[in-house]
Amino acid sequence: MTQQSTEHPTERGASLLDYLKGWPTYLLPHHALSRVMHAITRSEVYWWKSRFTRWFVKQFKVDMSLAQEPDLETYPSFNAFFTRVLRADARPIVDDAKALACPVDGAVSQLGDIKDGRIFQAKGRDYSLLELLGGDVRAAEQFEDGKFATLYLSPRDYHRIHIPIDGKLTAMAHVPGRLVSVSPATARAGPRLFARNERVVAYFDTEVGPMAMVLVGAIFVASIETVWAGEVPPPAGKEIRHWKYESDNSQTDFKKGDEIGRFNMGSTVILLHGANTIDWITDIKAGDHIQMGQALAKQC
Question: Fewer CB atoms inside 10 A, N or C side of the chain?
Fold first, then answer.
């Protein structure tokens, strides 16, 4: 599926306001601020976590009726609230065997085709698939001429990440980088944003071929967690780390809709699929709000 011709807020070119919002974030000490946020959001000081959580719910209009535990006072820290579990019936998983489920709540930043090894970021901006995957040529080759979807999680969204289709985890990479904001304004204004930020790349074998889920860090996202490795904190230095997983390990088998990770504070997930394997649902386009579990793509 090619890009839609109908223009949406995320598809217009960067405005002066976008630059004013986005570029100052490049000047901040991202990792230092994120480490501070990591400590603050895990504080169990009652008066602090209680006031901040109540303010956050009101400020961002968070619907607590969907939470498995709607009582804010039961959460020991702000991060426990932020990564809250939803009710079992809150996000039903599409039951069509040929449909891929949306992995997160959020908004579609962009989705479409990977063309000439490039991924569309915003009007007038794209970035390299190879750079996104940390320079891993063999990994990038699997997704040449394939499909991508970039899904943005705002502060009010549910922040657990689920697998769109049955899959077997085969590898993971941690790519160090910056922690610039990934807001729509910064995506429009910032070059190669998702290929420059810190990210965790999880690779899966599925019935439609290889799939990658790129969990992109951002300002104040002090850590990314996966269910198989726990918290993946950034190491000192710029070395890319790799993990391989044995094929006979049942703990790396996932069914459609299973949780695979979470963001501690909000960010972005980029889905990658190979050529001639899936098609995005035609009714879904850039700028649309989405929910975890709804149909996002169909097998070819």
Answer: C
Known catalytic residue: 267? yes
β-sheet with 278-280: strand ranges across: 99-101, 295-299, 278-280
pLDDT of residue 12: 55
| All structural domains of the chain with their residue ranges | 16-82, 99-299
Q: Which of 30, 159, 162, 273 is catalytic?
A: 162
The residue from 105, 126, 136, 157 that is catalytic is: 105
Which residues, 6 or more positions from 31, have their beta carbon under 8 angstroms from its beta carbon?
Answer: 179, 234
Secondary structure tally for the chain: helices H, strands E: 8, 18
Q: Which residue has the higher pLDDT, 246 or 104?
A: 104
Q: Which residues contact 50 (CB under 8 A, 6 or more apart)?
A: 72, 73
Identify which of 101, 147, 128, 125 has the alpha carbon closest to the alpha carbon of residue 2: 147
Is 242 tagged catalytic?
no
Structure confidence at residue 186 (pLDDT): 66
Which helix (DSSP H) or strand (DSSP E) does residue 268 occupy? strand 268-273
What are 222's two structure tokens? 């002090």
